[in-house]
Design a protein that fits this description.
- By secondary structure, this protein is an alpha/beta fold.
- The protein has ten helices and 15 strands.
- The strands form four sheets. The chain has a seven-stranded mixed sheet, sandwiched between helices. Strands 9-10-8-13 form a four-stranded parallel sheet, with helices on both faces.
- Helix 1 links the parallel strand 1 and strand 2.
- Helix 1 runs parallel beside helix 8, helix 4 packs across helix 5 and helix 6 (about 215-225) packs across helix 7 (about 260-275).
- It is elongated and about 70 Å long.
- The structure holds 6-O-phosphono-beta-D-fructofuranose.
- 6-O-phosphono-beta-D-fructofuranose binds near residues 14, 118 and 142.
């Protein structure tokens, strides 16, 4: 094992509450080992930009544990294995720059890298590890969809934000006897929607893991107007879809394809079928905003310090992971091998069913 003198850290993909806590934990632990820490700005982009790599010491990370966002900046577009190169005529081609990234770290005499990211960023980290970079991953995403860890930091804060929003919808829904449909993030998984929906006492929760049947949703809503309080709260994951159909994408101004539009679709369909007054909202990036809750702060600090300890132990090509209540190391390739979806036999699904919440099936 080569001696470590200097390490780098970066944050990639969508931001999640807790990123700054991980950075601080890495820096403080690294200082105990006597290492220098450098932060690469905006995922790997900073490696090729002037002033794109900054020195991080305990002063640089003071007072950031509770802050949202990331002091290093991030991007979910900077994939070095598909680097966009724009020609003079405006056309774009893509080239694999992973070797250049590895070489650039070597040129800067960086002995190891701690990459904080979701499946995309950790997939890149895995490719860099295969090219010889000494790398340790830290799992981040509000979606909680990474395999090989029970939890990613940022998830419980997003669930809290969403639960709070669902809670607030109750009073306005009740006052107007309306059906309120709220769309939550989560990409192709329903973790945020299921957890926030159950905690926020929604009446209907639609997740990608259970393609829904509109008949069953409308039956549930009608039963509420007939027997119970004359309003309903429907939570729909952005990646949910009806039986026999497919996830809905919206075309954005930048020409990107992004999941979205489910709240509108479900709301309109409920109105057409039941005649009830409906309103929809998309909670969107509020779910990623703000500082981490206490649980995510602690998890982020545990992950960050553990990642630095893995570097010290020479356990490269791994990711820190939460296994029940313990933080341990798992191979990076296991973490990015598949998406972690909500298991249909999970007790949270059962909890929803026992509470009489309609899951659209
Ligand atoms: O992966 C986190 C996430 O917030 C997803 O839940 C969502 O689909 C996506 O990122 C949104 O990405 P962007 O920030 O590019 O809009």
């Amino acid at each position: 094992m080569s001696e470590i003198r200097r390490i780098a850290v970066n944050t990639g993909g969508g931001d999640a509450p807790g990123l700054n806590a991980v950075i601080r934990a890495i820096v403080l632990t690294a200082e105990q080992y006597g290492w220098e820490v450098h932060g690469v700005l905006n995922s790997y982009d900073g490696l090729f930009a002037e002033d794109g790599v900054v020195r991080l010491d305990r002063r640089a990370v003071a007072g950031i544990t509770h802050l949202g966002g990331t002091i290093l900046g991030t991007t979910n577009k900077g994939n070095p294995s598909r680097w966009p190169v724009r020609a003079e005529d405006g056309s774009v081609t893509y080239e694999d720059r992973t070797q250049q990234v590895v070489d650039e770290f070597a040129r800067r005499e960086i002995d190891a890298v701690i990459a904080i990211g979701g499946d995309g960023s950790l997939g890149i980290a895995q490719q860099l590890a295969e090219k010889g970079l000494q790398v340790v991953g830290v799992p981040k995403t509000i979606d909680n969809d990474l395999a090989a860890t029970n939890l990613t930091f940022g998830f419980t804060t997003a669930v809290e934000t969403a639960t709070d929003a669902i809670g607030k919808l109750h009073s306005t829904a009740e006052a107007h006897e309306r059906v309120m449909v709220v769309e939550l993030m989560g990409r192709t998984t329903g973790w945020i929607s299921l957890y926030a929906g159950v905690a926020g006492t929604a009446d209907v929760i639609l997740i990608p893991e259970i393609p829904y049947d509109m008949e069953s949703i409308c039956r549930k809503i009608e039963a509420r107007y007939t027997n119970g309080p004359k309003f309903a709260i429907v939570v729909v994951a952005e990646g949910a879809y009806a039986k026999g159909s497919e996830p809905l994408f919206k075309q954005t101004a930048g020409g990107q394809k992004r999941l979205g539009g489910m709240a509108r679709l479900v709301s309109d369909e409920i109105h057409e079928r039941t005649g009830r007054e409906t309103r929809e909202l998309v909670l969107g990036h509020l779910q990623r905003g703000g500082g981490p809750n206490a649980y995510d702060r602690l998890l982020a600090l545990r992950f960050g310090t553990a990642a630095a300890r893995l570097v010290a132990a020479g356990q490269f090509g791994t990711m820190v992971a939460l296994d029940l209540s313990q933080v341990l190391a798992v191979p990076l390739e296991d973490a990015v091998a598949k998406t972690k979806v909500v298991p249909l036999d999970s007790d949270v699904v059962e909890t929803a069913q026992s509470l009489g919440i309609c899951l659209g099936d």
